[in-house]
Amino acid sequence: MSKKVREFYVQQNETLDQFAEVDDVLESARAKQATGELIPSTPPDTTRRDDDLRASVRWAVNVNTLVNVVLLGAKIGVVLLSHSMSLIASTVDSAMDFLSTLIIFGTTRVIEHRSWQSQFAYPTGKQRMEPLGILSFSVFMISSFMQVGIESIQRLCDPHLEQTHLPPIAIATMVGTIVVKGAVWLSCRAIKSASVEALQQDAENDIVFNFFSLLFPYIGQLVKWPYLDPLGGAVLSLYIIVEWTRTLLDNVGKLTGRRADPHEHQRIAYLLTRFSPLVTAIQHLSIYHAGEGLIVECDAVLPPETSLTVAHNIGEAAQYAIEQLSGIERAFVHIDVSSNPLSGHLER
Description:
Blueprint: H1 3-35, H2 44-81, H3 85-112, H4 116-121, H5 129-156, H6 168-188, H7 194-223, H8 228-255, H9 262-275, E1 281-290, E2 293-301, H10 308-323, E3 328-336
Parallel strand pairs: 2-3
Antiparallel strand pairs: 1-2
């Protein structure tokens, strides 16, 4: 099976899983609507899923904190034994890993802390602090490796650069780092959270980064060419800058209200069209990011003769149903009686 065909079927399976989630929510919403119970409540499965996710995020952050502290201490010792520019870049990367874990650890604790004061100050919750923490860390990563890149270029321009020597303890430390980061990457793959995805990306970068941080000075030592080590430092710095610039731009887009992916529109349209036989059309559907979560704005068309009570119940029940879906932060359902091209908002 070709790669494109495999990706197509993976995407189809993900769409079917999303539709299955919608079906589960619809069964609960219809039961509430039939009994007139419109007070929003979270199904047990959703509550259990959210609790499991929070526990997984805490576990991943705690493990990464411990791993990064140990690796940072080991690499500082290695740099004192060898003045390799590639190893210095790897040590800076470990220091940034530790800083990133602290930032994510702090934002996770702030998000989880709930009281009447926090609910009053943040009516829609504090989930948007998560991409803000990642944004801050991205800036730290880019600025730090710009400095490493500048130092590497300066060493490349030095006509009297000395040969770098790698002691066996340095090689063992770097190999151990690659193995540990590989285990961290595998453990974070199944956790769907912006913070853990950032840690997973960081672990993936570390595997590549530490491999070449060891390869460049080691080959330079074998061929007796001292400039290979700072060249490796410059190349690795450029790699990290490019990777984290992508992460930075992705989170900027989410914080500034970027439009959601098409499959999110399919999921909400599927829910609305199956929610009630009175829903004759979807006039307007807009889904956009507000941080990691999504905001849904939609206009559902009902027959003009529908009573106010029935229209209200359908609209509010549909709104609660949409907010039960994973990834949805807020939903706003407006009931209309005719289809027209207007969005219901002023153009800004």
